[in-house]
Design a protein that fits this description.
Blueprint: H1 2-38, H2 43-49, H3 55-61, H4 63-66, E1 100-102, E2 109-111, H5 115-127, E3 132-136, H6 141-156, H7 163-170, E4 186-191, H8 204-213, E5 219-223, H9 228-231, E6 235-241, H10 244-252, H11 257-262
Antiparallel strand pairs: 1-2, 3-4, 4-6, 5-6
Helix pairs in contact: 6-7
Bound molecules: zinc ion (ZN).
């Protein structure tokens, strides 16, 4: 009898401790789980588990906020308006001839709708301590034709120019109808004391000032070095009126006029 009691008591103790062990392990599992859930941000684990996360791994983990900031919306404009007229080898403007007026007291002319903006731009340059000089502004179709034919003749001399000579000339002088100067909105601005159209001979500080400040007067750099593969030209002195809204957008996004016009097709 005694032995039986002892055995029963022993079995009871065993069962009780077994139950206690199960209950204890369950609750500690739950606690551990609760702890995991309380730290949903895996940031701590990443720094412990992976060696110093690079910027790429950050993008993988969390792509949305690391995206490049979206550039401003393109201006809400009518691309067929006169300010955006595009003259280049693929867009010949024929004999387009705007109404032009003299720029200040020079022998150079500009579209009458944009001449005030140009004068403001020149005055701002003077106020900044520079001495701007209008090298060339409006160039009518006939003048462009004269220059172009002259260049072809020069290349073929002493023979008459053939198609090859005209093609070669087109790389040096824009054929009539394809020059930005014919729009009446393009202008070559140089320094009064460094007036040759050779970038290495020019006042680069002044050219930088013009590029940095042109947009607020409605002008863009028409042939930026960065876009020579598109425009065919690299002229740090050639500015083009397009209006303030388009100019701010184009300069901010380092575009050329060709790219800007393309965005509205
Ligand atoms: Zn020019």
């Amino acid at each position: 009898m005694k032995t039986r009691h002892i055995l029963m008591a022993f079995a009871f103790i065993l069962l009780t401790s077994f139950l206690l062990i199960i209950i204890f392990s369950r609750s500690s599992e739950e606690r551990a789980l609760a702890q995991d859930n309380a730290v949903p941000d895996a940031g701590l684990n990443i720094t412990v588990d992976t060696p110093a996360p690079s910027s790429e791994s950050v993008i993988d983990v969390n792509p949305a906020p690391t995206k490049k900031p979206i550039a401003d919306e393109k201006p809400d404009i009518d691309i067929s308006s006169w300010e955006y007229i595009l003259a280049n080898s693929e867009h010949n403007i024929g004999k387009y001839a705007p109404t032009v007026v003299a720029i200040e007291d020079t022998a150079q002319f500009f579209d009458e709708r944009a001449v005030d903006a140009l004068v403001d731009f020149l005055n701002a340059a003077r106020a900044a301590g520079y001495t701007p000089y209008i090298n060339t502004a409006y160039r009518p179709y006939s003048t462009q034709e004269y220059y172009y034919n002259g260049k072809a003749s020069q290349l073929s001399w002493p023979d008459y120019p053939d198609a090859e000579d005209y093609a070669a000339a087109a790389l040096l002088v824009a054929p009539p109808g394809t020059s930005d100067h014919q729009t009446g909105l393009g202008v070559d601005i140089t320094d009064k004391y460094y007036s040759s159209l050779d970038a290495s001979q020019m006042n680069s500080e002044f050219l930088d000032w013009l590029a940095d400040n042109c947009a607020q007067y409605g002008f863009i750099l028409r042939y930026p070095s960065l876009r020579k593969t598109i425009t065919g030209w690299d002229e740090p002195w050639h500015f083009r009126y397009v209006g303030v809204e388009a100019a701010e957008y184009i300069m901010k996004n380092n575009l050329c006029l060709e790219q800007f016009v393309e965005m509205y097709k």
